Amino acid sequence: MSDEKTDERPASEAASSGVVKRVRAFRHPEKRNRPDNPIQRKPDWIRVKAPVSREYQATRKIVEDHGLVTVCQEAGCPNIGECWTKRHATFMIMGEVCTRACAFCNVSTGRPDALDREEPARVADATAKLGLEHVVITSVDRDDLADGGAGHFVEVIEEIRRRSPGTTIEILTPDFKGKQEAIEKVVAVKPDVFNHNLETVPRLYPSIRPGARYFTSLELLHRVKRLDPTLFTKTGLMVGLGESAEEVGQVMDDARAAGIDFLTIGQYLQPTVKHAAIDRFVTPEEFDTYARQARAKGFLMVSSSPLTRSSYHAGEDFQKLRAAREAAVAAGLDHGARHRAEADALGAG
């Protein structure tokens, strides 16, 4: 079975905003000649309802009217129905074409278009129209840009702050190829949460995330925390790709050593037959075990479940973290005691 049908992008019409997206024949041209990996039937605990609510349609209209891209759509997120019903959308900036070709990702691969200089204003306007109290901004990798797109992240953050000063901002960034000046540029505008996903265990990087390096990603997050300890840092892992529980535990230890506050763990779901095969479906009980293990290691927030994704319930989690930190500061605790108090206050959060 070829993925040509599932991999084709239909011709797109100009959005009402006047933004015209380039039509691509195939989302993943680099994967077309790979052998097929049959897609396994999902267990009952992964089934989700098709999005049909009126609120979902309203969110979709705002996204389309502004000519924006969301990772919810591009990555085929299983939670899109729930999140968009709540008017929560994760905007994906700098286009819909990524310069890398990760084996797990459903985002299109190829040569991107030039940056859209009007995009920051449209993202800010959509954020305001959706009434978002907490917005998540992610992007494709843009290795074609000297700063990896760091400056565009800055413009988006500043525009949202101008239009919606009360909205908290979470970013999920590429690795910027580890360029220190790019990282510093983004940290300087103080996003409320700086997320960068480790994605998988180091052993699987050559086959699953070949365009990245595990320790480059880890050092990025460590550097963010060193540059501004007040920023919350966050990372995410997929499981079900063939990793062992011991390897996941080691990633947790590495992440804590880098000062990471949030950890998300979710099941890898295979987008097409040309993507990496699922090794197994991790059970809900195993996800609960990972959550207990991570909390014991000192993470302030852990989200671990089959359907957990990086921005799933991000606003609620941020509110819990901020309240815990404020309570600890009010109590006049020192840095170490404050972290312990935050973890205690969050409990099973």
TrEMBL record:
Protein name, UniProt field? Lipoyl synthase
This protein's gene is called lipA
Q: Which organism is it from?
A: Marivibrio halodurans
Mark out the compositionally biased spans (Basic and acidic residues).
Answer: 1-11, 32-41
| Domain Radical SAM core: from-to ranges | 84-300
| Pathway per the UniProt entry | Protein modification; protein lipoylation via endogenous pathway; protein N(6)-(lipoyl)lysine from octanoyl-[acyl-carrier-protein]: step 2/2
**Where along this sequence does the record place binding of [4Fe-4S] cluster 2?**
C98, C102, C105
Q: Which cofactors are named for this entry?
A: [4Fe-4S] cluster
Instruction: Give EC number(s), comma-separated.
Output: 2.8.1.8
Record Gene3D superfamilies = Aldolase class I
- Compartment(s) of residence: Cytoplasm
Give me the Gene Ontology terms describing cellular component: cytoplasm
Organism placement in taxonomy: Bacteria, Pseudomonadati, Pseudomonadota, Alphaproteobacteria, Rhodospirillales
Residues reported to bind [4Fe-4S] cluster 1: C72, C77, C83, S311
Cofactor details (free text)? Binds 2 [4Fe-4S] clusters per subunit. One cluster is coordinated with 3 cysteines and an exchangeable S-adenosyl-L-methionine.
- Cite a single GO BP annotation: protein lipoylation
Reactions mediated catalytically? [[Fe-S] cluster scaffold protein carrying a second [4Fe-4S](2+) cluster] + N(6)-octanoyl-L-lysyl-[protein] + 2 oxidized [2Fe-2S]-[ferredoxin] + 2 S-adenosyl-L-methionine + 4 H(+) = [[Fe-S] cluster scaffold protein] + N(6)-[(R)-dihydrolipoyl]-L-lysyl-[protein] + 4 Fe(3+) + 2 hydrogen sulfide + 2 5'-deoxyadenosine + 2 L-methionine + 2 reduced [2Fe-2S]-[ferredoxin]
Which spans are transmembrane here? none
User: According to the UniProt record, where is the region Disordered?
Assistant: 1-41
Q: Which SMART domains match?
A: Elp3
CDD domains cross-referenced by the UniProt entry: Radical_SAM (cd01335)
Q: Does the keyword Mitochondrion apply?
A: no
UniProt similarity note: Belongs to the radical SAM superfamily. Lipoyl synthase family.
Keyword set for this entry?
A: 4Fe-4S, Cytoplasm, Iron, Iron-sulfur, Metal-binding, S-adenosyl-L-methionine, Transferase
